[in-house]
Amino acid sequence: MYWLKKNSYIFIVIAAVIIFFIFISKEEPSSPLSASLISSDLEEPTEAPLTEETPAEQQARTAVVDVKGEVMQPGVYEMEQGDRIRDIIDRADGFTENADILQVNLAQVVQDEMVVLIPAVGQEEPAVNAPAGEQTNNNKIKINTASSEELTQLPGIGPAKAEAIIAHRDNHGLFQTPEDLLEISGIGEKTLETLIEHIQVP
């Protein structure tokens, strides 16, 4: 018993060391995998900044079109650039029973400030008009809205080339410059030179 009392401090030190190591082992992660999981949980995902379109960019992507005549819901509609006449007819709930759909080019691409006039059967009115008519005040013909008959009034443009111009316009979009006409078979540099003073490209 005397020996135990004399050496009791040794047992106290040993017990303290054991308790210290138990405490340290609880503080450390159990494995490298658990440590990596803990660090990954603390990291917040980064999100790419959102880019907002400017009002000018939004306006460039839209076309405001006025639909009149034989449609169920006439009015002004905001369409996307590249939409076609058939799309705006759908927005207007379709044709009325009196509509002369044979006069309507459903494949034509819409443009800003366009007036779409759907005629009744027996009514001789153009189905699509530009804001100021197909011809400008200086008697130039707007090639983006002119009909086949109006295009044939241009020098060097017969019925076949007029239809080719309309087909290119419908399939590839509106002409942006007079030089775009060179993409049409049968229209070369010389023909374009004679056309430039008679046409208008918005």
UniProtKB/TrEMBL annotation:
Residues 149-168, 179-198 form the Helix-hairpin-helix DNA-binding motif class domain. Keywords: Membrane, Transmembrane, Transmembrane helix. The chain crosses the membrane at residues 7-24. GO terms for biological process: DNA repair; protein secretion by the type II secretion system. The keyword Transmembrane applies. GO terms for cellular component: type II protein secretion system complex. GO terms for molecular function: DNA binding. The keyword Membrane applies. This is ComE operon protein 1. It comes from Oceanobacillus oncorhynchi. The gene is comEA.
